[in-house]
Specification:
With about 150 residues, the protein is mostly helical. The chain has helices at about 5-20, 30-35, 35-65, 75-80, 85-105, 110-120, 125-145.
Length: about 150
């Protein structure tokens, strides 16, 4: 059964990371590039936010008994198949997850311009939370009706 408590904790983790990222929105690329503390903090919060998204997706997939993804990117397809996220957003989510792999594994060398560009699009991360919250609202309404009247 889908654990509302676990999902809400993960959504809170995502929200904290997004708020921290949003607090840095006014940072210019020049400042971002020069100041390792700023770009280090942004890189870290992007990792935390994207990992929370992956964790939310894998929890939903597992608890709903959906097919297991072979790669993290497949989380997007599975969630779209079950209308948890819109199909057109699944492509965006795949890019977000692929970007996390770059951040975590530092393929070749991190491109600060690419990181800054992704940082400017954090509303795409917030959309995930919006879609999941809408799904959970509908899911738990349906689940509570299926349980029958309270005594």
């Amino acid at each position: 059964m889908v654990s509302e408590k676990i999902l809400l904790k993960l959504l809170e983790r995502l929200e904290r990371a997004l708020k921290r990222l949003e607090s840095k929105k006014g940072v210019s690329f020049e400042e971002f590039e020069k100041n390792w503390e700023i770009h280090g903090a942004i890189i870290h919060e992007l990792q935390v936010a994207i990992q929370a998204i992956i964790d939310i997706g894998t929890h939903l997939i597992s608890e709903l008994g959906l097919r297991s993804p072979n790669f993290y990117r497949e989380i997007a397809d599975i969630l779209a198949e079950k209308n948890i996220i819109p199909r057109d957003y699944a492509e965006t989510l795949k890019k977000i997850i692929a970007f996390r792999n770059i951040l975590v594994h530092e393929y070749v060398e991190l491109d600060l311009r690419e990181i800054y560009k992704n940082f400017q699009n954090i509303e795409d991360l917030r959309k995930f939370a919006f879609y999941v919250l809408n799904f959970l609202e509908d899911f738990f309404k349906i689940a509570s009706r299926a349980e029958g009247p309270e005594n």
